[in-house]
């Protein structure tokens, strides 16, 4: 029986690392071939018609037909009718998780992972001022924000939606193309970090020296 993973090989000058992309946002047939979502926008990346097995980003088996906000599955809870609150200070509160997110989803542009960690540590009120609609004015100081863990980042995925795969009624700015960094490294490869593509809700990994990642800071209780 095929499993809902696709192999991704990344080569470095020293070694070849065999990585696996989570099945969310993808389908795999009995021969392991990955099937792309249809161009008409149908949400067929989560429904798996091939009697395969689906896993979440940690390798835990999950229903292949799950088509809801991922937070409902992670937290074993249902989203409130009004899940997000615009705090009108450059931040948005998620009432389901209690986390406070930066409203600007692309305040820092693309950077490698270490650059993302440092940028978030320095974030403070007055930053992200390139767009008056998203300037941070929450009285926060450097050190108040952090890069989200993978579990925290995944709470923003909605597997019933695409472009972006964010919950209905979200109050964030337009998401840039590409992936967002998490703070979570792979257990067996500290130089590889979990990431999320919010266009499709796909989770996978990338190396820490890749300069292709975006940064989405968060505040709130540490996971």
Structure report:
This protein has one domain. The radius of gyration is 17 Å and the shape is globular. It is built from three helices and 14 strands. It has a four-stranded antiparallel beta sheet with strand order 7-8-9-14, with no helix packed on it. Strands 12-11-10-13 form a four-stranded mixed beta sheet. The protein has a two-stranded antiparallel ribbon with strand order 1-2. Mean pLDDT is 78; it is low at 1-49. By secondary structure, the chain is mostly beta strands.
H/E series: EEEEEEHEEEHHEEEEE
Strand content: 15-25%
Rounded to the nearest angstrom, the radius of gyration is: 17 Å
State the low-pLDDT regions, or none: 1-49
Tertiary shape: globular
Query: Which strands sit side by side, in order, in the main sheet?
Result: 7-8-9-14
Helix content: under 10%
How many domain regions?
A: 1
Mean pLDDT: 78
Number of helices: 3
Number of strands: 14
Biggest pleated-sheet summary: 4 strands, antiparallel
Structural class: mainly beta
First and last CA, distance? 35 Å
